[in-house]
Amino acid sequence: xxxxSVITPAEASDFRxxxxxxxxxxVDVFNxxxxxxxxxxxxxxxxxxxxxxxxxxxxxxxxxxMAPLVHRGSVASYVTGISRALQRKGHLVEVILPKYACLxxxxxxxLREVKGEAYSYFNGQLHGNKIWNGVVYxxxxxxxxxxxxxxxxNREMIYGYPDDFERFSYFCRxxxxxxxxxxxxxxxxxxxxxxxxxxxxxFWDIFFNKGLGGTRILLTCHDFNSQGIEQPNKLALCGLDxxxxxxxxxxxxxxxxxFVNILKGGVVYSNRVVIMSSIHPKYTIVxxxxxxxxxxxxxxxxxxxxxxYGFEKSTWDPSRDYFLPENFNAENMNGKAVCKVALxxxxxxxxxxxxxxxxxxxxxxxxxDVKKMKDIVLNGKQNDVQIILMNTSEKQVLxxxxxxxxxxxxxxxxxxxxxxxxxxLSHLLFAGSDIILCxxxxxxxxxTPLKALSYGAAPIAVGLDAHKNWVIPFDRNLxxxxxxxxxxxxxxNNTFGNMSFGLAIDEIRSNPSKWKRRIMExxxxxxxxxxxxxxxxxxxYSAIKNM
Length: 547
Description:
Layout: H1 9-20, H2 26-33, H3 38-46, E1 58-62, H4 74-88, E2 92-98, E3 109-113, E4 119-122, E5 125-136, E6 139-146, H5 164-181, E7 188-192, H6 193-197, H7 199-207, E8 216-221, E9 229-230, H8 242-245, E10 260-261, H9 262-268, E11 272-276, H10 282-288, H11 294-299, E12 304-307, H12 334-347, E13 357-362, H13 370-382, E14 386-391, H14 396-408, E15 415-418, H15 423-432, E16 435-438, H16 448-454, E17 458-461, H17 487-494, H18 501-510, H19 512-523, H20 529-545
Parallel strand pairs: 1-2, 1-7, 2-6, 7-8, 8-11, 11-12, 13-14, 13-16, 14-15, 16-17
Antiparallel strand pairs: 3-5, 4-5, 5-6, 9-10
Enzyme class: transferase
GO molecular function: alpha-1,4-glucan glucosyltransferase (ADP-glucose donor) activity
Keywords: Glycosyltransferase, Starch biosynthesis, Transferase
């Protein structure tokens, strides 16, 4: 409405505050208002009753991925997951993305091009952009489409081009120009990895005094493998001063000092840095996994917090899962036995209440040690264990190995192969199994261990990297840093982290009451995006707003 000169930036700010402080969530009313014209919506806003609620935040993500629009790694599911969790708690969340040619726009409700001028600075002059607005899972989404530099995002891949810095610095500058033009005054600008870390220097050097005095910066690092190492003079493309920033305490790379490090700049210029790692504590990440950024992270150590990944609780919750014949939770596990019987019946396996049931879903991207998998199946066969293998992977090597294994075990009544994905059966697999096989506990894109624990099953890792980097060389300082580990990490370390398949079978049979207590304890923790991950982010937002 601001870009189209329907209302002023000041009016827009007032309306955002009104919506933000109302007791009804945006996601709850979107379908009722999405079809209305601007004038109709303005009429309703002007009569909107202001009913107070707890302190809420207005957060804008500036990012390069968001599920299900564009998904190339853990960033996409994280952005959507934490945004939905925040909105469920009453916060106002927006996401700004480049308008890639490969976006799945069918996932956007109410997508429309904004009629109005949207210019941004790049390479010495102003350039026009098309702005698109829509909603994904109740989250407001803005897509920025460059006109003069249309080739930046009209490509097959999202990342991996020689001009990635130019592409994403254009997008970052355009995002900030758009925010200021619309009169938005978010509490937090939330950045992700090196691709949007340049927003930090841009914000403090150029945009802080353009109506964003109350805004703070939070950067999320999903890993430190890629940091955006560039020639200093390229900073001028988006309006920054290379000589001012190419300094050791700012963006100068710690190793190759003739270059600038964009991720380092994001750390330096952010008020808080959230490191996403379900398993490793902060000390281990800084000391062993930061790839030459250790000196910078140590200087800014007080900014750093670690948060675990999660999963979508609205669709994966055994106490409310409508795919299950009977729901259950940590306090009442009776429904799990019902789910187990239903799963066995559906797949034609014999029903033995005392038998151990093992489930495995080879989804797209699975990287399974085929030899280890075969050994597990044969081990299970010798120990009278029932095993269900659901294969939806398109990996030829894995498919051939499983087909060979299926042929070898075709006469075994305790093993069932499922060759096509079934959503309802997948939920029942988690609910009915005693053990769920997973790739590893280290892969942020694999939600299998989290879902297994939440559904009362023990996750056992069988991937090629199941224990890669799991054991960090002993350091006595680690003993003093356990409090920096996530709750999920402590659960895994104290239960199933290094447990083999054979040991799990032995423990279930030799001490079933102890095993049940262990499972119930794990189930009592909320491992979804709404649990510890949300709590860490809320604390970070609150801390920087009080600065």
